[in-house]
Amino acid sequence: MASCKQCPSQDVTFEEDIVNINPPPALQNLAIQSLLRDEALAISALRNLPQSLFPAIFEAALIDGHIGILKAMIPVWPFPYLSLGRLIRNCNLETLKAMLEGVDILLAQNDRSSRCKLRVLSLRNEYHTLWRIWGGSYEGKGLPEFMTQQQPVENCPDCGVNKELKVTTDLNLLDGGLDESATYLLQWAQQKKDSIHLCCTMLRIHSLPKDIFRDILKIVNTGCIQELHLKELYTEELVFLIPYLREINNLLTFMLSSIRETYRMDNSTRLDEENISRFISHLPKFHCLQNLYVNDITLLGNNLKDFLGCLGKPLETLCLTSCDLSQSDLDYLPCCQNTSALKRLNLTATSLRGLVFRPLGVLLESIRDTLQSLELELCFMEDSQISAILPALSQCSHLTKVNFYDNELSLTILRQLLYHTANLSQLTYEVYPAPLECYNDMNIILTHKLENFCPELLDIIRANRQPNRVTFATSKCLICCGSYVYDLETQRCLYQKELLED
Ligand SMILES: [Zn+2]
Ligand SMILES: [Zn+2]
């Protein structure tokens, strides 16, 4: 841990994550706003409006809470797919009720309106481009593919459910249970189960009220769940979940984070260890799992081999962050069949201090043709350790991202590292620690040294390729939590409070 000379205390404000949407043309916006002011008129006009206006009107109605219009738009929605995407943030119980009442009307129509094409209503916050329809960015570019009538709508091929209409959602089980919207949605789906398929693709369990959990699984088809997050659960709750995990057989992403330990007067630490071992040894085979995230679990130590035994096929992502890895865990990594095709490997904040790195080198060698992202931030690596992986690292020619931040490397070994990454022509994002020579005996950051070293270090890369985004950064100052960053853009050593947003 370092501290800096000045500890600047300036407030660094960050711009909000502003999404850059092309707003609908001003005139169209005005027309929509004036239409929405007269709800009855808007509803009566819906049938005659051009299809292309529907997304923009729906968005405006959702944001301003015109529930009557939302309800009326669903039964005449002219596209097979309606995805709220990021607009889900504007959704509350009232707007949800209005949309579901719209679905009720749609389902009750014997003579389906020739206009309504709706097959899927997605209430997920999906981070793909579908949401752009709301911004009007389709204007003049034609409608996105999925909005055309020819687009086939998959009705949950994985879980084999085929109902009239699919409603997709994520569910979050938190301390107080489900939120009121999710509770309402589940009750509604239960009543409409003959015609609606409620498809829950992502289930986050951050607390486990067991009754509510059982109720959810009475309504949600476990075969639909592709992403499962278990966070801050007690070890006995993990054991409780074992039989249910067996049913979640289409899981693609599994995230296990921050297991809570029980502190009692008796030998409960031992009980936790027993529970963890029991949980790990009873994990079912996840036949399609692609991404495994394990975070902040110190009880994992020495159990990694058994844990990875749940994999049914080669993983794409392995993240073991803030964990305890033993030498035998590290030794096992390259021996596991299902780590042989990794695209992303992340060991951030997992201490590898004092471990023999040869197995990590063997692993890198075996994934040299697949690996795209390697994060070894804050692993307490030292010179001799990183030397052991350099030959393998330089063969990972598909790497686009590497992060070695916050490791204790000397200038000499940092140069060596750069000679090796300089060969990796696909790299677009690189983070390196400031060398040990940038701190004095008292661990005070010497910014002028960083400023002096960096041009030379950058030249090592430039000798082989044009770098894209390269950053050198000091450890965080103990007092102000800021660090000094030298990057390609500024080519200066600057103080930063928040480091390395990628
Ligand atoms: Zn400071
Ligand atoms: Zn489904």
From TrEMBL:
<dbReference type="GO" id="GO:0043066">
    <property type="term" value="P:negative regulation of apoptotic process"/>
</dbReference>
<dbReference type="InterPro" id="IPR050694">
    <property type="entry name" value="LRRC14/PRAME"/>
</dbReference>
<dbReference type="GO" id="GO:0045596">
    <property type="term" value="P:negative regulation of cell differentiation"/>
</dbReference>
<keyword id="KW-0433">Leucine-rich repeat</keyword>
<dbReference type="GO" id="GO:0005737">
    <property type="term" value="C:cytoplasm"/>
</dbReference>
<dbReference type="GO" id="GO:0008284">
    <property type="term" value="P:positive regulation of cell population proliferation"/>
</dbReference>
<protein>
    <submittedName>
        <fullName>Oogenesin-1-like</fullName>
    </submittedName>
</protein>
<dbReference type="InterPro" id="IPR032675">
    <property type="entry name" value="LRR_dom_sf"/>
</dbReference>
<dbReference type="InterPro" id="IPR026271">
    <property type="entry name" value="PRAME"/>
</dbReference>
<dbReference type="GO" id="GO:0045892">
    <property type="term" value="P:negative regulation of DNA-templated transcription"/>
</dbReference>
<keyword id="KW-0677">Repeat</keyword>
<comment type="similarity">
    <text>Belongs to the PRAME family.</text>
</comment>
